[in-house]
Amino acid sequence: MTISLKDIQQAAKRIESAIINTRFEKSQTLSIIASTELFLKFENLQFTSSFKDRGALNKLLQLSEQDKKSGVIAMSAGNHAKAVAYHSQRLGIPATIVMPTATPNVKVVDTQNFQAKVILEGNTLEEAAQHAHKIAEAEGLIFVHPFNDEHIIAGQGTVALEMLAAEPDLDCIVAPIGGGGLIAGVATAAKSIKPDIKIIGVQVAGYPGTYDAIYGDSGIQGGSTIAEGIAVKAPGKLTMEVIDRLVDDVIVVSEEAIEEAISLLVNIEKTVTEGAGASCLAAVLSNQEVFANQKTALILSGANIDTRILASVLMRRLVKKGRIVRYKIRIDDSPGTLSSVSAAVGDLGGNILEVFHQRMFSSLPIKEADLYLTVETKDVSQSEVILKKLMELGYQASMVED
Description:
Layout: H1 5-15, E1 24-26, H2 28-34, E2 37-41, H3 52-60, H4 65-70, E3 72-75, H5 79-91, E4 95-99, H6 105-113, E5 117-120, H7 125-139, E6 142-143, H8 150-166, E7 172-176, H9 181-193, E8 198-204, H10 209-215, H11 237-246, E9 249-253, H12 255-269, H13 275-286, H14 288-291, E10 295-299, H15 307-320, E11 324-332, H16 337-347, E12 351-358, E13 368-376, H17 380-392, E14 396-399
Parallel strand pairs: 2-10, 3-4, 3-6, 4-5, 7-8, 7-10, 8-9
Antiparallel strand pairs: 1-2, 11-13, 11-14, 12-13
Helix pairs in contact: 1-8, 3-5, 3-8, 5-6, 8-9, 9-11, 12-13, 12-15
């Protein structure tokens, strides 16, 4: 079966009463940073915080009454799970979700909150899928695939209809690629409406399955990633056929680039994205020459990031930018020394976050100690001014890089 524009238009009508036509607007600041016009599609604002609502609902609405009564099963790293669970709950369909054991806890809990039965099995999506298929066969459940399904692809493609209705003169759409359901639907809709539009896919460095399928095996596979939503080893058969025909290029981005994109979206757009959701911005910022002088749409595909991971990302970016630094200062281990050092740092505008004395595990003389200060500063230059001042005061001080 070949997905058509008509299939996607019908899906849009079918799901419109329960899906949010999310914000789609130009980011003035990010456009300046990227030296091109960037428009953001805030799919992270769907009810389950990802675009997956679209395909899941389109699939569930087309089940027979008997299938709905029997129930459904899905495998997912999180967003598809939440979407299937939520809309199954709305429609009164029993749902079982198989998730990899390393799935972030926030996604597991959110899925359970929609009354789905959650089973943690397998180290990868592929292993979770194998287990889900066994349960489906044993219990007579309908398997709802996260991407290799015509109804899922058509539902995901509805996001392109909304973007082009709002901005008909878009030159390029950038979408993340895991299994390929989103980009297959988007490419089908967008190229049907505007054949000369460019469709660019994005993958994370550890999981370049689609990139490898197009350009040859890179030999890179697996490992932990902040973009677990697109940590899929290989695209689906249906999605790859569409990608081969309609997608213009695939860009692979680093973990570092994704972390920076998450931070920028929080600080500039005041919006939370998960790793997969920030990957499109990461691709543009890492390849600005590719997108120069184009009106480019970025799909912020989801917001389901563990709060601990989000906090770590934001703090790590402050360290990278020199906004949080660590000093190692040799001091006399005597009363008043710490307050003198603290006063010097405070007088220059530094905000001390952590203080640690190293006395025990050291070869220093008994009346000396290494003092470690973690300090928040305005920028790198202020950090260097503080270091210089400490040295002028006679302290043996250095910046701890690692």
